[in-house]
Write a structure and sequence with these properties.
Blueprint (H helix, E strand, L loop, with lengths): L9 H5 L10 E2 L2 E2 L5 E2 H13 L5 H17 L9 E2 L13 H16 L5 H12 L7 H17 L4 H13 L15 E2 L4 H14 L2 H17 L1 E2 L2 E2 L7 E2 L11 H15 L5 H15 L9 E2 L4 E2 L2 E2 L4 E2 L4 H21 L1
Antiparallel strand pairs: 1-2, 3-4, 5-8, 6-7, 9-10, 11-12
Helix pairs in contact: 2-3, 2-4, 2-12, 3-5, 4-5, 4-6, 6-7, 6-8, 7-8, 8-9, 8-10, 10-11, 10-12, 11-12
């Protein structure tokens, strides 16, 4: 990572209409027939709220994502995830990942956006969502990220603090083999969020044991997913102890989640492993990966959907593009801090 890579929102904007961001693309062309999802719109709210000087187009995306999440939310705080191209919801509200990611997006907007009305609207939706809890570890982990964001600007916000305390009570220690330092028998998806959530909850609650547990988990994950000096993440199907490596289909979400966690760890821990991990995540997108191929299109700013053993899936879906944007945002801040 020798140059300052600036996040470009061109492709994300091209994937978006007045209802939301289309989930899928055929190469760079949106596929409206597959509709929209709350998971993606929550991630849109995260990356756009992080922009320090958002353009008018990015400001529009912030408001659009916030409106989408408001429409997705049920009165009891659950979330619907699927909307078709006509704007009709096709599923029922749940507390699965879309719930946790929505809380993450709302917390990020509440903490970081300076746009008129965004913080108040985000907090109102956030409070409604936190009526619920999820039995799913990743949903609770994403929600913990949002709660920690809120506490950075509203340290007395008791609803957010209770969510973090509830999360801390469910965050188990790694089990099993000494060389498998992970709380699940297999790595699954967006793995680093489990470490990042422990880190933020430990810091916010003044819980040093939980904080150190999260840092140890993240350090193990970086080492486990590094091969030959480059990042070799677990594939979409997951990976267990003894599974062959490298494995494919590798997904951008796994890389961006690792970048998120490394950036978070570096906020309170000066060890070089976190900047090294973040640089490796950027390198994976630039082609420092198992097949030596770039995972994004500089002409569009879109991220590619998957890395296979002998090819790249060059479709530029919303999740992959948002993963790229998020990773480049962290890298940009790292390089600006180092200057």
């Amino acid at each position: 990572m020798t140059t300052l890579l600036t996040p470009r929102f061109d492709h994300l904007l091209a994937m978006t209409d007045e209802l939301g961001t289309f989930e899928h693309a055929f190469f760079a062309e949106p596929r409206p027939e597959h509709g929209y999802c709350t998971d993606d719109m929550a991630r849109v709210l995260v990356v756009t709220s992080r922009e320090r000087e958002p353009s008018p187009a990015v400001q529009w995306l912030v408001h659009l994502a916030l409106r989408f999440l408001g429409e997705a939310q049920a009165p009891d705080g659950g979330y619907r995830n699927r909307m078709d191209a006509s704007g009709r919801w096709t599923d029922e509200a749940t507390v699965e990942d879309c719930w946790g990611r929505s809380i993450w997006g709302l917390g990020t907007a509440a903490a970081r956006s300076d746009l008129t009305g965004v913080r108040d609207t985000a907090i109102a939706q956030f409070d409604r969502a936190l009526q619920r809890r999820s039995p799913w570890p990743r949903a609770m982990a994403f929600a913990a990220l949002g709660a920690a964001e809120v506490l950075t600007v509203l340290p007395e916000h008791q609803v957010a603090r209770r969510l973090l305390a509830d999360y801390a009570g469910t965050a188990t220690e790694p089990q099993g083999e000494s060389d498998w330092q992970w709380p699940e028998p297999r790595l699954r998806y967006a793995n680093a969020v489990l470490a990042e959530a422990r880190i933020v909850a430990g810091r916010a609650l003044g819980h040093p044991v939980l904080l150190q547990r999260g840092l140890r988990m993240l350090e193990w994950l970086i080492e486990d997913q590094t091969t030959g000096g480059h990042l070799s993440p677990s594939p979409a199907a997951g990976r267990g102890l003894g599974d062959p490596r490298p494995a494919y289909d590798q997904q951008p979400i796994e890389v961006s989640t690792l970048a998120d966690a490394c950036a978070r760890a570096a906020e309170g821990d000066s060890r070089q492993i976190w900047s090294t991990g973040l640089k490796a995540a950027v390198g994976w997108f630039e082609g420092d990966n198992d097949i030596g191929q770039p995972m994004w299109d500089p002409a569009t700013g879109g991220g590619f959907d998957g890395l296979h053993a002998n090819r790249v899936n060059a479709n530029q879906g919303a999740e992959s593009t948002l993963a790229l944007l998020s990773t480049l945002q962290h890298a940009q801040r790292l390089m600006m801090t180092a200057q």
